[in-house]
Design goal:
Helix content is 30%, strand content 15%. The chain is of the alpha/beta class and 307 residues long.
């Protein structure tokens, strides 16, 4: 059996790959372009991809038995055609929940406590020249007693809800599919969630229900000092609308996902003037060492099951 990893660099080197040699002949590519995909896939029995697109044309010209997606989301695979030709596609679900929850709060706490601002202050002459031992501007607030709204109450959203509740927040959620009715937390409509929440975190997939879900119209519902975090998918928030709203309000924003990744040169967020109110991380919420090891364990098991 020939196994091809198309974009190993998106998984990293601090995981164990040697075991895959017991399953067949393994070829690793750190990255694969669209133009290279066909050549690298056509003789493979199993392909492992994180972000490389496997479409109908590639499936038609290959002899694949299994596509392993090195992620939970499978929007880079033509799932309809795979089903039509009985080509198995397997992802790894639930491997990154703890990691995403953790980064959600890392972003939130960094913004609430203005960590960037205070770090720069203490490393400059500002603190050296200060007549007092501390600094109160910008002020920060407790999560306890605040309203935390969650968009997308799946496994990750529930994990965030548990931690937010432990901080003493009042948690509510909006179901993007309209099908989630978790009795443990209050379900509200989107506009109500935006109006009432002090902190909003997004943990939803990108689909027809969520594309541009947050836009120039409903951004106006936000409290002026609200915090909004997107750890779902880029495209759920309209980037141009959000970048303008950051500069025209006092909201703070934490993003781990963008519509185009890596960030393109003309990304609207590069023009934001209130940069202290914006933190962007490079789509790494899923990627703790432990999560990536669980991911590779899942990929190995998925391949092993077809032998």
């Amino acid at each position: 059996m020939k196994i091809v990893f198309l974009d190993r660099s998106t998984i990293g080197d601090d995981v164990e790959y040697e075991r895959f040699n017991t399953l067949g002949d393994v070829v690793f590519y750190d990255t694969t372009t669209k133009e290279q995909t066909m050549q690298r896939v056509k003789d493979a029995d199993v392909v492992v991809t994180n972000k490389v697109v496997i479409d109908k044309a590639i499936m038609q010209e290959s002899s694949l038995k299994l596509i392993c997606v090195a992620a939970t989301g499978m929007n880079n695979i033509d799932l309809e055609y795979a089903k039509e030709i009985n080509l198995e596609v397997k992802n790894v679900a639930g491997y990154s929940t703890a990691s995403v929850v953790q980064l959600t709060f890392a972003l939130c706490l960094s913004l609430i406590n203005s960590i960037k601002v205070y770090d720069e202050f203490t490393k400059s002459d500002g603190w050296v020249d200060s007549p007092i031992f501390t600094k109160f501007n910008p002020a920060f607030f407790d999560i306890s007693g605040k309203k935390w709204g969650i968009i997308g109450l799946g496994n990750i959203g529930k994990g965030v809800a548990i931690v937010a509740s432990a901080f003493g927040a009042d948690v509510s959620y909006y179901s993007t599919s309209g099908k989630n009715s978790d009795s443990e937390y209050k379900r509200v409509e989107l506009n109500k969630l935006l109006q009432e929440s002090d902190i909003i975190s997004i943990h939803a997939p990108l689909n027809s229900d969520t594309k541009d879900l947050i836009n120039k119209t409903n951004l106006l519902f936000l409290k002026d000092d609200a915090i909004i975090l997107n750890l779902g998918r880029g495209g759920i928030i309209n980037e141009k609308d959000l970048s303008l709203h950051i500069d025209n309000s006092n909201i703070k924003v934490g993003l781990d996902v963008l519509e185009v990744e890596p960030m393109r040169e003309n990304c609207p967020f590069r023009l934001v003037k209130k940069s202290e109110n914006l933190i962007i991380t490079p789509h790494l919420a899923w990627a703790s060492v432990e999560s990536r090891r669980k991911l590779v364990d899942g990929i190995y098991q998925n391949i092993k099951e077809i032998k």
